[in-house]
From TrEMBL:
Protein's name according to its UniProt entry: 6-bladed beta-propeller protein
Superkingdom of origin: Bacteria
Origin species: Algoriphagus pacificus
């Protein structure tokens, strides 16, 4: 079995807008007489000068867990909701209780401990940095890792953790067998180190057709709710729900009616041409999904339309390329959509001022990381709490 290494996405969290209680942007559409939005309720401001990467937040213990990732060191930092730095320590490098290289973001386990899933196994530390337990990987000694940052981590369900499966089949991506054998998610048992990959592409998925896709076009957005695992396969605008218990049966398929969503539907063959692998930049993609009651909240990139996709791959001067990218960034902001359980969009609006994909649900509360201000150096970062508002 091969192991896949993808790029690390580091969330730099420094901001410049004032905290206030208002609705998250203006909704573009509404249904009937009701208007659906996300309303800011509160914010946490952590004074910090550097390049912090927030890993987790825990309202119960009022703890923010973040790191400073540098080439020669990695500092773990815990802060209170009032902004006070509680503790700082390192578990990286040549130390007996090192996690090695992180495979997933750190995860707060309870009111006084957190889990590090790394190349040396599952390690649990208390908030003072003392090692509480370590369970090594039972069948291999090396992992790759995925996105590191809030919103890209493991989800806990009982004694198990749900995460992206980093193993890939022993087939070329030019073979249909690759798509048939690929398992998208995995259950992790932190008490034994065992893993259980599950969920293949269903026959109805675009990834089980005749076309081929750029690397990681299927990167999943997933969540656990109502005893089900809800997952979206990257670019494909469909929510698949599975029973979270063996044999993990597919329960339902919900098509997402996202307006002006432009996504890559595959090509007849894999090529090295920029018009193929460059679709990673232009294709629509679902980045995050959460379920609150009967509603889904998703964060997505809408994707370039056909004309802009063609222009993306035309030869340009450096200046022309920069101007084009600036125009595309303004034309195609990441968006938030609120949908009912049938996939109908009740509201959607630009996700401006927040890190795409950073949405987490903690104690049934929605939290997002504020974007950093590229215009000036900030000595703090903020995390906002939202609630689903229906008027």
């Amino acid at each position: 079995m091969k192991y896949f290494l993808s790029f690390i996405f580091i969330y730099l969290l420094m901001s410049g807008c004032k905290p206030d209680k208002d609705k998250f942007q203006k909704t573009e559409i509404s249904t009937g007489e009701k208007v659906y939005s996300l309303e800011k309720l509160d914010s946490i401001k952590i004074p910090y000068l550097g390049n912090p990467t927030v890993h987790d937040i825990d309202p119960s213990s009022r703890t923010v867990l973040f790191m400073e990732h540098m080439l020669s060191s990695q500092e773990i930092i815990l802060a209170d909701f009032d902004g006070t730095i509680r503790n700082t320590f390192s578990k990286w490098g040549d130390v007996p209780d090192s996690y090695g290289n992180l495979i997933a973001p750190l995860l707060i386990d309870n009111s006084n401990s957190f889990i590090a899933y790394g190349s040396r196994g599952f390690l649990t530390y208390d908030f003072n940095g003392e090692l509480l337990s370590r369970v090594k990987h039972p069948d291999f000694d090396y992992f790759g890792f995925n996105r590191i940052g809030l919103g890209g981590g493991m989800e806990k369900s009982g004694n198990r953790l749900l995460y992206v499966n980093i193993e890939i089949p022993d087939y070329s991506k030019n073979e249909r067998k690759f798509y048939e054998e690929l398992k998208i998610l995995t259950w992790l048992d932190q008490s034994t180190g065992e893993k259980e990959p599950f969920i293949s592409f269903p026959n109805s998925s675009i990834f089980r057709g005749d076309n081929f896709f750029f690397n990681n076009a299927w990167d999943p957005a997933f969540t656990i709710a109502d005893n089900f695992v809800y997952v979206v396969f990257g670019v494909e605008p469909v929510i698949y729900s599975y029973d979270k218990h063996p044999p993990y049966s597919l329960i339902s398929k919900t098509n997402l009616e996202l307006p002006e969503y432009n996504y890559f539907k595959g090509a007849e063959k894999i090529t090295s041409d920029v018009s193929f692998f460059g679709q990673r930049r232009t294709s629509g993609r679902i980045l995050n999904i959460k379920k609150i009651g009967e509603f889904f909240i998703i964060v997505y990139f809408p994707g370039f339309d056909f004309t802009d996709t063609q222009e993306q791959f035309e030869n340009k001067s450096r200046e022309e390329s920069m101007l084009f990218q600036k125009r595309m960034n303004e034309k195609y902001p990441h968006k938030v959509a609120i949908l009912n359980n049938k996939g109908k969009v009740l509201s959607h609006f630009p996700m401006e001022g927040f890190i795409p994909g950073s949405m987490v649900l903690r104690d049934n509360e929605i939290w997002m990381l504020e974007s950093f201000d590229t215009e000036s150096e900030q000595d703090y970062f903020r995390i906002f709490k939202f609630e689903l508002n229906i008027e």
